[in-house]
């Protein structure tokens, strides 16, 4: 049967958008999205539930029931093939579902599943295709980086003036950006497993680092401070950027405060995504970054590519991904 690649890509992107509902409550499991489609209409959907179970495919198949027979499921990640005491392997559920077709946007790097999930489905006579999807890979970026590099994904947020400052010369910094940009930052906090500031920012500002958006107040990430000293109550200490490899169960780290913390993570080569909030003001104050060891101007080019740009009130948000940060 002939299928339309553009339609498949559209449904995979929709499944990736659905997967956002799982983040970050699905940790330590990735947030996966699944759509069951028949004749161009969604008949069921699912996403990974809090704590990691049930998985997206199980939720979608349970919602579809007998209507799944003959339909197509679009899933952002290859259905798992390994056994678990917490639930059946999704590849087995899919194989027994009566679905006619499975479209996968991202293969699973977990060696317990990698290639085995799609093979098990095909063995049951179901058409199964891997169609690489940038949207699916982006939705799973924290999981992919964790599996491939042994550490969580790191997003660095900087709120800057037009001249690249994070504060006035006096140290005053509240507020450089407006309410719309600050609300967007809180939404990004709600999507993170852990949020981190430098020791200097912690001592100077005593930040709360909570989520102050209606309906999302329970999405507060773990609070970490970059310090070799003992962390204060309610906080956890990270002695170095490289120590993120030991942050158990964490897929997404949001580095939010301090030029020193930002510089240190960049120097370690551990920043995967930049969120640059730029306000239309000139401060002539404290720069947002220090020397992070860039060896030459030539090597500065090509490291980052813009994936999003939007207006937030009077401020501008630019989002950059590090090249190849979540690729194998």
Walk me through the structure.
Converts 2,5-diamino-6-(ribosylamino)-4(3h)-pyrimidinone 5'-phosphate into 5-amino-6-(ribosylamino)-2,4(1h,3h)-pyrimidinedione 5'-phosphate. In the C-terminal section; belongs to the HTP reductase family. In the N-terminal section; belongs to the cytidine and deoxycytidylate deaminase family. The active site is at 57 (proton donor). This protein is 25% helix and 24% strand. It has 328 residues and is of the alpha/beta class. It has two domains: 5-144, Cytidine Deaminase, domain 2, CATH 3.40.140; 151-322, Dihydrofolate Reductase, subunit A (3-Layer(aba) Sandwich).
Brief account:
By secondary structure, this protein is of the alpha/beta class. The chain has helices at 5-19, 56-64, 90-95, 116-123, 134-139, 141-149, 179-190, 199-205, 259-267; strands at 33-38, 41-47, 72-75, 101-104, 127-130, 153-160, 165-167, 194-198, 222-226, 236-238, 252-257, 273-278, 286-287, 304-312, 315-322.
Oligomeric description of these chains: single chain
Tell me the structural class: alpha/beta
End-to-end C-alpha gap: 32 Å
CATH homologous superfamily assignment of the largest domain = Dihydrofolate Reductase, subunit A
The H-and-E topology, N to C, reads as HEEHEHEHEHHEEHEHEEEHEEEE
Uncertain segments: none
CATH topology of the largest domain: Dihydrofolate Reductase, subunit A
Principal-axis shape: elongated
- Give the strand content: 15-25%
GO molecular function: 5-amino-6-(5-phosphoribosylamino)uracil reductase activity; diaminohydroxyphosphoribosylaminopyrimidine deaminase activity; metal ion binding
Protein name: Riboflavin biosynthesis protein RibD
Family: In the C-terminal section; belongs to the HTP reductase family.
GO biological process, one term: riboflavin biosynthetic process
